[in-house]
Design brief:
The protein has 340 residues and is of the alpha/beta class. The chain has 5 helices and 14 strands. Helix content is 20%, strand content 23%. The radius of gyration is 29 Å and the shape is rod-shaped.
Length: 340
Amino acid sequence: MFIDFARIRVHSGDGGKGCVSFRRELYVPKGGPDGGDGGKGGDVIAVGNENINTLVNYRYTKLFRGTKGHNGDGGNRTGASGESLRLELPLGTIIYDIADGRHDKIAEVVSHGQEIILAKGGNGGRGNARFKTATNKAPRYAKDGGDGEYLELELELKLMADVGLVGFPNAGKSTLLSSLSDAHPKIADYEFTTLAPSLGVVRVSEYESFVMADIPGIIEGAHDGKGLGVRFLRHIQRTKILLFLIDVNSNDPFDDYQVLKKELQLYDPYLDKKLHLIVLSKIDTVPEEDKEDLLALLKNEFEEKTQENIITISSVSGEHLPLLKQQLYLLIKKQDALEE
């Protein structure tokens, strides 16, 4: 199940209590203080995991706690520290502090193995041996451990992928992803088949590949929440490049492209600056006698108005898919070079 939003509470462990104790030895009737310190409470730590792409583990469990530090003991023995709790999160997770009506970004998970301490465990209390002085050689008091930290958090996942598939519902995005990769998104001949983003690894060669994300269909007004709206638009923000997939059977393919561009720009102006590729899909559905003329007409219109090269494909027959993979890979490399 794909879940890209969750609200949780975290509480690190309290520190253990310091110990009041005195040394007891044969023939030493008044041994000095030997109470040990309490152990530190367990932290709550976010850990990046590239093998996870959903927040489903945080949908039903709402409170996550580190364990309490153990109390100190006699003989100057320090209590064991509490066990830290590690919350494994998918890459692209943004963490917000939402206590008391706030919505402050406190961290972002961007790499595998990355560790972020969300809540520090309380310090262990000091034992009475710590309070011995020249004037008080037998202190009979110790400190309690410090309290753990409590936070209310919002987790928001923005999928991290190289290529984001953008198009109207039923434009053929899921079919394309399944044709280029090992992903198996739901495919059917009606709108909004895809209700959650899907990821697939596209192999370009034995040693070269990239990750493609199928974003649920965008419709006019999506930036205001219409249709599936902003629920999925945010996933496009984390992709390196965009692939606009336009159905050749549309009443006005170029207008479809303009609407898609406008929705992205209204949601986030930066999206309009991303490197992208325009692809006309479903050319296998065009009658053979009309195919050459129609595709030439559409390509000329797009290329004259955008000054960009357009690729025509069929995800069903595989026509021009090898070319598409190569062009996408080159565009990704270009973006990587720009970021260096």
